[in-house]
Design a protein that fits this description.
The chain is α/β, with parallel strands linked by helices and 374 residues long. Helix content is 42%, strand content 13%. The strands form three sheets. Strands 1, 2, 3, 4, 5, 6, 7 and 11 form an eight-stranded parallel beta sheet that branches. A three-stranded mixed beta sheet has the order 8-10-12. The chain is globular and about 55 Å long. GO terms for molecular function: L-threonine 3-dehydrogenase activity.
Length: 374
């Protein structure tokens, strides 16, 4: 390190070679300084690792015990091998998750811990799912700011330092009341009114900045509301579309916290996870942007209830509007324009509303029968 050698030489001359000085010699400790993207130069450039057809990426998923992480890990392990996909979270996993493949403790607010995980496990792909969702974030803004923004900065720096391919999900919540709502294009005004939305716009822009400034291979999808059968609602505004299935099977009654005419874009989790893998595998030269809308269907609580009642005529649906969640929903897109994703990397959804309902009912009914039998 030329700079350090020069500094050491100057220090020795200053402390030991000053004429007429009666001072005792001092020892100057010089510490080797490793690179950190927090100290990048203006011409720094990073590139993600490329893989041959026989190689597989080594994957880390943060926030892995949320709605999407476990399903993503299962899909990626089938494709890349069980030991090549590490699930992580700050919570203790259930036995089924713990025994299904590698799981480690990872706190995204602990920069040193994250670096050690990436280095020790030779991570090449990182899926960053740690975040506080919309309604939960509004109830604890300070925590949401810490997790969603400070945690993201740690992830970006580590991804840049180690040349990772990084995926960070965004959301319909990244738009606000001044955005065009039906449809909402990829590029338009974004002025969200929630800390969750603000943090996601921040993630989109920071990821694109790191890509253009440092060459970080950053990729991002704006998810619509995601509906899955194997995880419980986690505090999001669109969670009514998951809760209705659980309540319909359990009690035959459902109370919705949004108005019956509240239209929002939605997607089945299978489509969501497939889209995530497809954009990560897409050749970089096919991507004209780093953040894309994806969509599958758009419906209201009333339309969902009516379609579900075709399968369960006895279902009773009532409405008790939560004004906080309703205000959030009213500021979000009613429908996504995802034409760029479909054109550039071949995105195409498989599930429309009828297929979604049949899949959800089949899964939850099967789970209920197994639970009763045991």
């Amino acid at each position: 390190m030329p700079v350090l050698r020069a500094l050491s030489k100057v220090a020795k001359q200053t402390l030991l070679g000053t004429p007429g000085c009666s001072c005792q010699p001092l020892t100057v400790a010089v510490r080797n300084i490793s690179f950190s993207p927090r100290q990048v130069t203006s011409d720094a450039s990073f590139h993600s690792v490329s893989f041959s057809e026989t190689d597989h990426p080594k994957v880390l998923i943060t926030g892995g015990l949320g709605q999407l992480g476990v399903g993503l890990a299962k899909m990626l392990r089938k494709k890349f091998g069980k030991n090549n996909v590490i699930l992580s979270d700050i919570r203790k996993p259930p036995s089924s998750v713990f025994h299904s493949g590698p799981f480690i403790y990872s706190d995204i607010l602990d920069y040193k811990n994250l670096r050690e995980i990436v280095v020790n496990n030779r991570i090449t792909w990182l899926f960053h799912y740690s975040a506080l969702l919309s309604a939960v974030g509004e109830a604890n803004v300070a925590l949401a700011r810490s997790v969603n923004i400070t945690g993201l900065h740690n992830i970006l720096d580590i991804a840049a330092e180690h040349g990772l391919r990084l995926f960070v999900p965004s959301t319909i919540g990244a738009f606000g009341p001044t955005s065009p709502r039906n449809p909402t294009p990829d590029l338009c005004v974004q002025r969200p009114r929630t800390i969750y939305g603000v943090s996601k716009v921040h993630a989109e822009l920071m990821g694109e900045y790191y890509h253009h400034r440092y060459g970080l291979d950053f990729r991002c999808l704006r998810y619509p509301g995601i509906i899955s059968a194997d995880s419980m609602p986690g505090g999001g505004t669109t969670d009514y579309a998951v809760q209705i299935f659980h309540d319909a099977i359990k009690s035959g009654k459902f109370e919705c916290n949004l108005r019956p005419d509240t239209r929002l874009p939605m997607m089945y989790i299978g489509d969501c996870l497939r889209a995530t893998l497809e954009v990560m595998e897409a050749p970089a030269d096919t991507l004209s942007m780093r953040t894309y809308n994806i969509n599958a269907m758009s419906f209201t609580p009333e339309e969902l209830a009516q379609e579900l009642q075709k399968q369960m005529p006895e279902l009773e649906v009532t409405y008790d509007v939560d004004h906080v969640r309703q205000a959030i929903a009213d500021s979000w897109p009613m429908n996504f324009d995802d034409s760029n994703a479909r054109k550039e990397w071949g995105w195409k959804h498989d599930y429309d509303l009828p297929e979604l309902i049949q899949t959800m009912l089949n899964y939850l009914s099967s789970e209920t029968r197994v639970a009763r039998a045991s």
